[in-house]
Structures are given as C-alpha cells and as structure tokens.
Amino acid sequence: FLLGLGTICIVFAAAHPRWGDTEVPVQSNDAQLVIVLDVSRSMAADDIAPDRLTAAKEALAEILTRLTNERVALVIFAGDALLRFPLTHDLKAAGNVISTLTTGSILLTKGTNTSAGLELAHSISDPSSQSVKLILLLSDGEDFSKETFSVATRFKDGNSQFLVACVGTPEGGMVRAVDRFNGKPYYLLEEDGSPVISKLNENTLLEIAQAAEGTYLGSDLSIVSDFVISSMSALGNKTYSSHLVTQPADRFQVFTLIALLLIVIATIFELRRSISRYFLWLGFLCCSIFFFVFS
After folding, report:
1. Is beta strand 173-174 parallel, antiparallel or unpaired with respect to 197-198?
2. What is the structure's pLDDT at 69?
3. The whole model's pTM is what?
4. Which secondary structure element, helix H or strand E, spans residue 224, and what is its range?
C-alpha cells in the first residue's frame, strides 16, 4: 500500500505541478530607447509612399521586431507633445500603439513644436537605472518653435545619445487629410486653391542633431533600424539591471519528498519481513536521484 502511494506521488512529481506565485530575479538589458515622433499634419505628405508617417511607422516596426529585452518609450508631438507610453519591456504592445498613430490627432494641438517633444523626451527617466538613453527623432523638419535648438543642447549632458532621421524629400509632396464626418481623404489647399506642398527641411534637422551633439542619419529610412540596433547593443553591453518577475511556483518537490518518506517507511516494514528488500532499496535510490536532480 505504501509503495503504491509512493509511486503515485512520483507520477505527480514528474508532472511538475505548479500553484501559487513566486518572484525570481531576472537580469535584463537595461538599454532604453525613447522615440520622438512627429505626427503633425505635414507628416501626411505623399512624397514618400504611401505617406511620411506610415513610412516612419514601418521603420519603427522593424526596430521593435529586432529588439529583445530593451525598454522603449514613445513621445508624439505636433503643436504640443504627449507621452504615448512610458518606458516598457512590452515591445508587442508598443508596436500595436505605434501602428494606430495618425496625423491630426485630437490629443494634440495643431502646428509643429519640436521643442515640446524633445523637452518631454529629456524628462523621461528611471531613477532605478543608470543607463544611457538613446533618443530617436523622426520628423520632416517643419518647426515653428524658437526654443528647439536650446532644448536640443540639453542632450549633451552625457545621459543620452541622440539620433535624427529625416522623413520626406526636398521636392516635397501634397498633404492629405481625412474628413472627420464621411471618412473620405482629400488634399489640403492654400487660400488660392492650390495644393499645400510640404517640403523636407533637412537644414533644421541637421542643426538639431548638431546642437545635441548627436548623429544625423539623413532621409534614408532603410538604415535607421541597423543604426538603432547597433547603438542599443552597444548601450546594452554596458548597462544591465536586475528586476523581479512573478511566475508560477514549482511544487514537485512536495510530492517527491512525500514519495521518499513513503518508500523509506515501506522499506523499514518490508525489511522486517525480509521481503523484496532489494527492490525497495532500488526504489529508494531512484526516488533520491529524482529528488536531487530536479530540486
């Protein structure tokens, strides 16, 4: 009877039962990427197919698929700025948020205020981390703020690396919009009826990169992913942090211990009867090995 119960307990232990939660320390890459994305009306220009914002989102999607344990935050800006999500390890959720972004958001005022986006990005910090942030600015360079360059100089504090990527072409393109009532797209027009043409302002973006002592990547979005990943990898090799992760607790040790006790007790009784002692000791040995290997 005792041997039967012991065998049942071993079967339960082999199934690796789990219940309750336990916190275990996990070491992760502490590199941080803060994306500063222009979502002003001009980002709907069609000089890059299908439009500037979609091209920028595709570049960001590629970056997120290549990241692993790094943390990402997103700042969007137009006439003002908004922290769309704070630093997070949930890259899938981050990608879902980015995929839903549109120009002319009701969450932001009209216009283009790059300084507001940069100021908000600079304020993002984690007191528990000493890592250097990688700031990635994606914009077409249209900017109506006089404080952008002075704000950009704050990124020279040694706590940030600064990248600037252009979105658009010098020739420019017409700016699309969507009618909020019928959902139909149309092109923005000037007062004289001619289409609004938005052109890439590379000089402004280059000056922002210089003011921040950062790196200017130009308008080729295909190189952005490689550059960001290599930069994040370099930062990750220098900065690691430990944090607690909650996971189900293994309880197979309980059944293994019960099985061990039952076999010991059964062995004592059987030895007194001198019956099957060799098989009992073999069972005791197997249970002991199981316990020490998997505990």
Report:
1. antiparallel
2. 81
3. 0.72
4. helix 224-236
